[in-house]
Write a structure and sequence with these properties.
This protein is about 25% helix and about 25% strand. The chain is α/β, with parallel strands linked by helices.
Length: about 170
């Protein structure tokens, strides 16, 4: 993995989410097969799946998957009202491309895989992310990452949408 550290975490030096989205879109094109279905992880990944689905003019509708019910920290986080899984297709035998904004420890991906397999058995599951920030606690790797950044463990890097609909990154924490 070729990880580099951004100069600082101030708003002026955050990664440009729109530039990374364009890289993700181009990378996802190479991962698509005739039976590939996009599934975005709530919430940033779901936004990515919706926009990619539209930009790539894919048939059907993308899915949205939540990690909430299978998280190992469910007792602390609880269930979000917006965290609902919606898969508008049969999962059995399908090539699933999971999309997420930021890959960090791998725990969300583990939980999402458990949720996905509650709906059936896909032929293949792959992962594409905007940012891989390292720091893995589980053996999870993205098939495509638009960027790789080392990011301070004390900070949470998340995708957001500006009022005009553009993707931006936000940072929470010290």
């Amino acid at each position: 993995m070729n990880i580099h550290t951004p100069p600082s975490s101030t708003a002026g030096t955050l990664p440009d989410a729109e530039v990374l989205y364009a890289k993700l879109r181009d990378g996802v094109r190479g991962l698509l097969h005739a039976d590939t279905r996009l599934v975005g992880i709530t919430s940033g990944g779901a936004w990515l799946a919706q926009r990619l689905h539209q930009d790539l003019q894919l048939p059907g509708a993308p899915g949205v998957i939540s990690s909430a019910m299978h998280r190992d920290d469910f007792a602390q986080r609880g269930l979000s009202a917006s965290a609902q899984t919606t898969l508008p297709f049969e999962v059995d035998g399908v090539d699933v491309l999971l999309l997420d904004d930021v890959l960090y420890t791998g725990r969300t991906i583990r939980a999402v895989l458990n949720e996905l397999f509650d709906f059936g058995r896909p032929a293949c599951v792959r992962l594409a992310v905007l940012v891989d920030r390292g720091g893995r606690e589980l053996p999870v790797a993205a098939d495509f990452a638009a960027a790789e950044f080392a990011w301070p463990a004390s900070q949470l890097l998340t995708l957001a949408r500006a009022q005009d609909g553009r993707f931006i990154f936000e940072v929470e924490g010290a």
